[in-house]
Structures are given as structure tokens and as C-alpha cells.
């Protein structure tokens, strides 16, 4: 290899070979000092793209290397001279970053990445290989290839880069249609100008609404206007934990229905424990609820069915939206629920879109890549799990929208139905 790269007869010995020196550079990509004009870095802003280099990251999770030897017994011959990175400094880097947790990718295309951590890595020196290459000609970059040490670190970098590129791509497509060209040119020449590609629509989440409500309550506390009947629970906390309980009920219901016809004792035990815990939480919550909404007591009595007690996952919580048309409920509580529900509806829609994309992707992936019985069964299980998530998100959206619908006349809300429309089955 040294001979081929012209380093074999180096008068100062082969030890002076630089990192990556023996790698073949892509002749078609821009290589400073080789195929670029000398003044390339002074090019006018509108010509700079000519000298851009596109790199891509790729990884293989199946290239296992068993832990049967050591560097002492079987040392590597090249010390980062060509495509593989130099081992010692790479290991130092890995050691330094070993506690970084890998952020889960939400992109459906990166399921392999998410699963990389969970795969068996026992007795393996490496679980795969990741490489950086030029995107157009697929020539690997010098020192651009590294082992995946338990699949984690190289991947983290890989995901960061991929994510950035995906984000860029979507934003670009979304916005290209609606931005004026002069704005783009201005920004491309001078990055300090207002960036026309930046998305400025803030998405509402339940967490952000909860924060807003908590802040409002904090200022009420300061002004000593606080009228909360409970020393520790505020009105907004009550409502948001009510919504949380509702969500838990929904999840429990899905998990019970997906149990299959022959559940194991272990599965049943786990579900029973979850049910018990949820029951305790609901009981606690209901006792506090009475302090805020005394009229609920009467409704609860009316709702009691003789005979068997109600199933935990079907217990009625009587949030303001469920009874505001039958009994009185403090306006403030309705207002809190409205705000949280609005955010919840948006979140449910986001989840739904995500799982639908995932579903389509999994189908395509299964058709093109999966063969063999075990893999097929596995793929089918994943798909049916995604299916369940789609229906949970759908149900969540419908329940939330119905709640908004019953609250809206009371609070005089209008126009919300334009964005949060009725979700029909044929739309999914
Ligand atoms: Zn190239």
C-alpha cells in the first residue's frame, strides 16, 4: 500500500507517513491544490457553490467482528494511513464520549439506527462499520471509516449530520415555493441578513401551555389573588394531570386489546400492576377534583352502574368538557382545559402524521429488504405495532376534538374548526 501511494521509499522512513496519505482521493470532487484554481476561496459569492463538496455518511450494522484477538497479538499494519481512522485516538474519542446518550431519530428511515443499540453486542469487538464518502461518486474519504463500537458513537455523529441534511431538505422544499428570490440572494451573500429559510411558526405543545399557565398562576400567587382550594395542587395542574390520566387509560386500553388470545402470566401480571397503579392515581386525583368542582360528586353518583365496578381504563374522569353542558363548572377550569386540549389536538395530529409515514416506510422496507420467515414475522409485528399507534393517535385526536367542541360554545371560541377539522376515517 505504501509503495502504491508513493511513500514506500520515503527517506525519513515510513513512520513519517501522514494520516490518510495512502488513500485515493476522488478525482471528480474538488480537491484544493489539485483540481481547483488557486484563487478558489476568493470566488464571488454567487460562484462559491462550484467548489462545494458533498459528503454522505453510511453505516453497516451487520459487519460484526468477534472479540477473539487483541491489538498486541495482531496489530494493525496501517496506522490511519488510508481509509480507516487511527485506532488509538479514535478510542480516546470514544472513551471521552461514551456516556453521551444517542438521541433517538424520529425519522422513519433511521430505524436501524435506533435499533443499533439494542442488538446483541455480547462478545463482539465491533458491531459494524460506518464510513464517510463523497455523495456523488461514493469514494470513501481518507480516515473516513471507523468501527461502530457497540453501534453508538460514530452513529451519533452520523445522525447529527443526516438530521441536519434532512431538515435542510424539507425546509428548502417547503419554503422554496413561497419565498421571494431577492431575499434568498441577499441572505446567501450575507448570512447576517434575515434568514428566509427559517421556519417561524411556533408549534404549540402541551408542555408549553402548561408552562404558560403555571407562570400565570405564579403571578396570581404574588398578587395574593390565589384562590386554589388545595395547598399543593393548582387549577392548571389538576386539569393537566387529568389529561395525563386520560392518556394513561387510553394506552392501557390499547395494550389490553393487543394482548392476544393466549397471554402469559407475566404479561397479565404486568398489566394488572399497571392497572392498580393507575387506579390509585385516579382515586387520588378524583378526591382533589371535588375541591375544585364540587358539582362532579352528584354526576359521579348518577354515573355509578349497579353490579360490577367500572373498569379502570373506562372510568369517567369528568373533566370540565365532559359535563360543562349539564352542571356548572368554574370558567377558569374550562379555559385551562381549552388551552391544554388545543395543544393536545395539535400533538395528536403530529403523532398521527409521524406514525402514518412510519407505516408507509415500513411496508416499503419490508417489501424490498426483508426476506426469510423470522425477519418477516418481525417486520409484521413492527407494522402492527405502528398500526396500533396510528389508531391510538386517531382516537386521541377525536376525543380531544370532541372536548374542544363541547367547550367552545361556553367560552365563545370560534374559528378553531378551520385548523382542527373533523378527522374522517378516509383521511387516514
Ligand atoms: Zn467524488
Defining key terms:
three-stranded antiparallel sheet, 12 helices, mainly alpha, two-stranded antiparallel ribbon, KDZ, elongated, binds zinc ion, 428 residues
The number of distinct helices, counting runs of at least 4 residues, comes to: 12
Question: What is the N-to-C succession of helices and strands?
Answer: EEHHEEEHHHHHHHHHH
Q: How many domain regions?
A: 3
Distance between the termini: 57 Å
Query: Which strand order do you get reading across the main beta sheet?
Result: 1-4-5
Mean of the pLDDT scores?
81
Described by the principal axes of the CA atoms, the overall outline is elongated
Q: Kindly provide the radius of gyration, computed on alpha-carbon positions and rounded to a whole number of angstroms.
A: 29 Å
Uncertain residue ranges: none
* Estimated share of beta-strand residues: 5-15%
- List all distinct small molecules, including ions and cofactors, that are bound in this structure: zinc ion
- SSE class: mainly alpha
Percent range of helical residues: 40-55%
- Oligomeric form of this entry? single chain
The largest β sheet comes out as: 3 strands, antiparallel
Q: What's the total count of β strands?
A: 5
Description:
This protein is mostly helical. The protein folds into 3 domains: 1-64 and 126-149, no CATH class; 155-198, no CATH class; 206-418, no CATH class. Helices cover 49% and strands 6% of the residues. The protein is built from 12 helices and 5 strands. It has helices spanning 87-96, 111-116, 153-176, 181-189, 206-222, 235-257, 265-292, 296-303, 320-323, 331-369, 373-411, 416-419; strands at 55-60, 65-66, 124-126, 128-134, 140-148. Strands 1-4-5 form a 3-stranded antiparallel β-sheet, covered by helices on one side. Helix 6 runs parallel beside helix 10 (331-369). The longest helix has 39 residues, at 331-369. The two termini are 57 Å apart. The mean pLDDT is 81. Bound molecules: zinc ion (ZN).
